[in-house]
Amino acid sequence: MKIWSISFTFSMSQLTTEYICRKKKKTHYRVVEILALVAKVAWRVFFDTDSLISKTIGPKLGFRESMTDLSSCGAPISSSWALKSLYWGLELIRANIAWKVGFPSKLRVWKDRWIEGECLAQLIDSQFHNRIDNSLVVGELQSASRDWNLSGFDFDLGMDVRKKIYATFIPLTNTCDAAYWNLSKDGRYSVKTGYYAALASNLSRSSTRTDVDRMNPQIVSFCKGRLWKLPISLKWRLFIWKFLANALPLGIGFLKRKLNYNIFCTLCQSSDDMVETANHLFMDCKFAQSLWFGCQLGLKSSAGIDIDVRIWFINWINYFVKSDNSRSLIFTLVATLWRIWCCRNEMVFRKQCHSPLLALRCVVEDVQGMHEAAEWKLNSGGSAEGRDVIPADDNDRTAYLETDMVQMCRNCFPFWIVGQSGCDSVFRMKCDAAWKDDRSAGLGWLILDMYGVRCGEGSLPFMAASPLQAEGIAMLHGLRWARENRILHIHLDTDCLNLVLQMIGAELPDMDISFLLNEIKSEIVYFHCCSLSYCPRGVNRIAHSLARRALL
User: Fold this and answer.
1) Strand pairing of 427-435 and 440-448?
2) CB distance 137 to 108 below 8 Å
3) What is the pTM of this model?
């Protein structure tokens, strides 16, 4: 790929991708944004078969159904720069691509990543590598009954590897193998994940670490999780994000860039010229110390403490989250930090010096304003953002702001998939699954008639890669049982909210159950009337007990 540019002599020249992504003298790392963007185009050409660019350019490049051979070869020597750039992006995709197994599968058993994003050669002991048959494909391990047949191996794979293979779902219909991006939940390539993959790969890695590599893991975890769940305004969230990412325009930044600006702290009234850093401005400065001690929190940020102010701030947030009055304490902490920054800007741009007493009065007003905004949101929309207690777990699946579709699912609203509502003699099926870490699962389903009388049930032991996959397999087997017993008007109840959202299209399907969702939808077509709704765990106890019985 060549990019046109104008040189200093006003003559047009061409810049190749190798020249753009060369090793820089000052930054010491290559421009990985170009690689991430080129890989996006390569993904559309080689793997997104429904896109227009794949249908037009794919046949010209010798596009084939099975991408395993194409992804392992390079660009021809006499090809254009555009084609070479596509194969350059394809190298990044090859390093982070995985496959969903179809039937019959044409994937290579030892080289392709088809076992939960890993290839079989990485899972077995290295002493068996000399006994690997590279010509073996996954389809030879699949039986006609859609089961795994591992008797062809002349050595022991190990119990853990066998369980992973047995937990890999085999489609009931003839389906081609599907490639997916292993770094995203929905399996689609994104420039953001490609950028981080390029930073970690040898395609663009330099011997010198970047600022991203030197960032504290605690700060990175806080910025990705709890920061955006804090019940504060968006303005304060963006300010805290810039504060934690060292993106505020402080004097130390001007000094590093050799800019002709004032690099000293403007809030200090001492004769010593102190360079304006984040630690000095927000913690060591006398003005900041008076505000931290005079606010409602009464914190002592005395000078000489050997701790990063960002870690100090995150530790206080984590401590306040666990308290009963977390919202008020967090408001005060963030408002004090914000007021220090505002007073600094007033001094720099307007030459107005504020007293600590006036700044503390502004902090109290900011906290009151945030309390009023939170109460208004709670009274008007019933949003969970106005709660006093914030979940202490960053991985809490309960979001503060839920969409209307999620709220409808939580209220057990039925979604009609096939047929129309108001059908007579509609049976109700409750399905559930139990899952263990060793990938063993138990499936259970219960059939009730229109009067609530139990008219059928079933349970089955199974192997599943995840709890979500086990819930989907339980629904699939329950639908098969109902169709075999001529129950064609049915309503499905499941206590798995993610499965309901992905079935109705409110969320993008996970790659773990993408083929499974297609199997469920193809099974639903045989019913005259079928609807789906979410039910709480307490309503689904009988199906859960059947699943637990099959698991034991």
Assistant:
1) antiparallel
2) yes
3) 0.58
pLDDT over 80 at 67, yes or no: no
d(CA 247, CA 215): 13
Cα(357)–Cα(293) distance, rounded to whole angstroms?
Answer: 11
Q: What residues contact residue 506 under an 8 Å CB cut-off, 6+ apart?
A: 403, 405, 406, 409
Residue 77 identity (one-letter amino acid): I
Q: What phi, psi does 432 have (nearest 5°)?
A: -155, 165
Among 309, 314, 327, CA closest to 226:
314
The domains of the chain are located at 2-96+183-200, 226-386, 405-551
User: How far is residue 405 from each of residues 411, 533, 539, measured CA to CA in Å?
Assistant: 10, 12, 21
- In which band, very low, low, confident or very high, does the pLDDT at 216 lie, cut at 50, 70 and 90? confident
Domain 405-551: give its CATH code. 3.30.420.10
CA distance linking residue 212 with residue 347, whole number of Å: 32
Q: How far apart are the first and last CA of the chain?
A: 59
Structure token pair of residue 550:
């099959």
Q: Are 236 and 338 in contact (CB under 8 A)?
A: yes
pLDDT over 80 (residue 372): yes
Query: Six-digit token pair at 80?
Result: 């254009």
Give the contacts of 66 (CB within 8 A, at least 6 positions apart): 106, 177
How many Cα neighbours within 13 Å face the side chain of 540? 26
